[in-house]
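Students often ask why we bother encoding 3D structure as a string. The short answer is that it lets us treat folding as translation between two languages. Here is a chain of 835 residues written in the first language.
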Amino acid sequence: MSRLIPSIALLAYLPGALIYRWPAWGRERRAALAVEERLFSHVVISVAWSVGLAFALAAFDHYRLSRVLIANGALSALILAGGRARLLYRGQAARPSLSLLLPIALVALGCWRFFPSSEYIIGGKDPGVYINEGVELAKSGSLAVREAVVAAVPAGARDLFFHDYHRGEYYSIRFMGFFMQDPSAGLSIGQFPHLYPASIALAYDLDGLPWALGVVGAWAVLGVLALYFAGARFLGPGVAFAASVLLTLQVLEVWFARSPGSEPATQALLLAGILAFARAHQDSDRFFGPVAGMLLGLLLFLRLDGFMAIAAVGGAALCTWIVTGLRPRIGFLVPLAVACIAGWFYVTWTLRAYSMDMVNYLRLLPTNIVVVAAVGFVAGVALLARLVRLGGDLAARVVPFCVAAVVLAGVTDAWFFRHQIDCQSPCLKLAAPDAYALRTFTDFYFTRWALVLSLAGLLVVVRRRLWRDPAFVLTITGFALAFFYKIHIQPFQFWLNRRFLPAVLPGMLLFAAFAALGSMNRPWRIPAAVRTAIGAVVLCVLGWHYAAAAAPIIPHVEYSGMIGNLRELASMFTDRDLVIVESRDSGTDIHVLATPLDYLLDRRVLVLERADPDKAMLRAFLEQASGIYPHIYFIGGGTDLLSRHILARPITTRKFLTPEYEDVPWNVYPNDVRTKVFDFGVYELSLGNNDATGGFSRTIGAEDDLYVLRFHSRDFNQGTPMRWTTAQSYIDIPGMTGKETEVVLTMHDGGRPKQAPPAHVEVWLNDVLLGASDVSGPDFRSYRFAVPPGVARLAGASENTARIRLVSNVWNPKQLLGTTDDRDLGVMVSRVEVH
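And here it is in the second language, the structure alphabet:
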């Protein structure tokens, strides 16, 4: 703790505080700002500087926490030496007031709502990719990952683990979310922009994995404060505080503040950047020009839609320049231009594997759309210039009218007329989640009456106050128009609505709070006290609704216990052993454990490309790998791995149970916490003779992972281990001699309900039908199927395992009985024998 506090101060406060105090650029103006906003600026500048510095060092393969701390310490010492006593305000600074309690309350509320963080360390989806990307950045000091275990795979065996996609952007997939660039050098790179992972790296180096997971909550608290300070300057502290409280109560904010992702960081930097832009331009404070350029420029290294934010703020600056004559500050333009140039090279080169889809999408835009957009932009600029030349405030009155008209037209179209459009062009195609985005977002999360309030508040703000903060208004409306038209994300709740988190949700809440508290002026003839009381009641009811909607997820910790489970699993291997994990197409999710085993827990891990790898290639690889690694292990729950000469010794079985919030389609609201099961075995692989001279016998449901494929997970029926079949399930039989005469399966129909058809199973051996049978009765029974001599001889002559295929008619408990079990179930199998 004695080291932690000074390190946090160097990273998150001291540099910004000293830069802010530098006696230049009209310091008396920013010294006159409220104490709470000054403190917020100190933190934001320091955090942005530290994270940006960590990212820059990693881009040149030189990141270390110690180097960031040394650089920040040197910068602070330099400012102290140069400024000395002049850094003191000497009575120029505003004194603390009761308003300081408002942001303190927001911090306390945010810490209560946004913690504890999820234990989302598994791979496969964005949160786990971000965590593994950040921790690996901390360990390697680089944006890229260089792994000896990958480089050691012989060229002739690469197809076992890395399929060559023959794409110029990347060679293959290392893990889900990590693109392999060069297999010979073991070079891979994370899928997502690295600025947020850089903040994870700093937190991880400070105090380990819990802090790395919790950094998203810290960003979310900073985002709530950014909304408060930007809103307070624009629409008043009361309105801003109400909107910020509503944001902390909102289920989307709570969910994504607990799950690793870049949206809370985007929210914080974007809103803080807009505030700095307004201070620099509308309030004529030169100091905030470079601050705004830095904050907005960092968005390019945080998310690809950072370009949208810069375009919106740039459009606001251009519009303000034309209409009011207020030029963009050079202090703002220079750092932003540098960031844009660096960001373009970063996105199109370092992140080319990820950004290429976006580039291809832009290339596919119909020429007429591009031409119309360009002509419209030029015509709009020319029209504004013409209105300005006509004199008076005509242009200043026309722009708000146009913004209001566009917003009203967009909302009317999205609510009443939008529908799904199927066509060949991906740019014109409109999927159902996109077409109904405004309606689903409103009905599931925002509420209709809050939408009416937000729209009313926006229209009043546009008419009266657009030129007080044009960047805020145009950025919020720009993001809303873009994402309510096309979300560009997989359509699952809560997942798809994270698009609205950085800008749209906080902006809409601010406008709704303004409509409730600040827009009813004199024409309504309502006394101020009554008006405020009515608005406060409306917002309290809205806040109660938001809090009730978020109540189920407050006690929920996504993937609770995964850190301990994976550490226990990793302790079974040394950092010199090789761990092979089953493939992504094996029908289980075991492959998501591979990423944290390697990047978080420092084990040497390879993931199979297929559930049925080439046996000759695998045998050759094991021969070569056995000379490099002391032990070679396999982790899986259903893989065709064995052959006549590939052996597997059972080590243990593991079953992780962890809570997971349900993943539902775009038109369904998630309500339930389910249990995610990781059920797998651990085996040590070796080479030898696997002939089944005494026949083959195996209990299904116990140490059977290398023999079954496309079964459901292990289970018990009245104490008997078993597995349910799916529509097609497979059992692999290694080392047949060619003399086998029958297959014996012990099966049970599982107590099918009367609504389901009787259980029926076809049994195939190496694509030859052995027979079929109805499965019935109150208990397990043995069903015998004769093996033709020719089929047995062919199986005995093959290097590969023989394969029994079970084709079952299935039933679904959720559909027929209304339970939570949504599996398609065939029959129970407890044992297989080949005689």
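Translate back mentally: The two ends are 67 Å apart (CA to CA). Keep this in mind for the problem set.
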